Amino acid sequence: MKPFAFSLDRIRDYRIQVLDTEKNLLMELFRKLYDIEDKIALCRKFRLEKQEEMQEKQMQGLTMRELEECKFYLENMRIQLEALEEEREQAALEVERQRVVVVKCSQDVSSLDKLEEKQLEDYHYLEARDSEKTIQEQVIRSLVYPKNDLH
Questions:
Q1: Which of 19, 23, 95, 121 could form a cystine bridge with 105, CB 3.0-4.6 A?
Q2: Separation in Å, CA 115 to CA 6, 108, 122
């Protein structure tokens, strides 16, 4: 019997490559999302610092120019945070869409792996049957043509 060879090996290899590519893209999207979240954290920290600075200056006596400057920074941070929050939502949606793609690709590879297992199981069954048949033929030959009987 010839050795086992999975008939869809090349297709599975291709699908594994596609899966790896999609996983890499997912990781890149995660990195983008984390970068946005870091920017949001920095903006919030800066805004909090500016608010505390403004409160300290109010206690000490603040000029109108300084008050307007602080309000400008705070308003600017609010606008940046809104934009970053929107960007984060979009990035999270992209991550989720890509996760679905990765799961689908993973399922494709998994189904081919299961198919290979089934084919290998069938191959082993046929191999065992072939061995059994060979052994039966040898037993029958030894009974029909005994070695000691040389007439």
A1: 19
A2: 9, 11, 11
Mean pLDDT of the chain: 89
CA distance 35 to 80: 15
On whether the CB atoms of residues 50 and 70 are closer than 8 A, the answer is yes
In this predicted structure, the answer to whether residue 150 has a pLDDT above a threshold of 80 is no
CA atoms of 58 and 72, how far apart (whole Å)? 16
Q: Predicted confidence band at 71 (pLDDT cuts at 50, 70, 90)?
A: confident
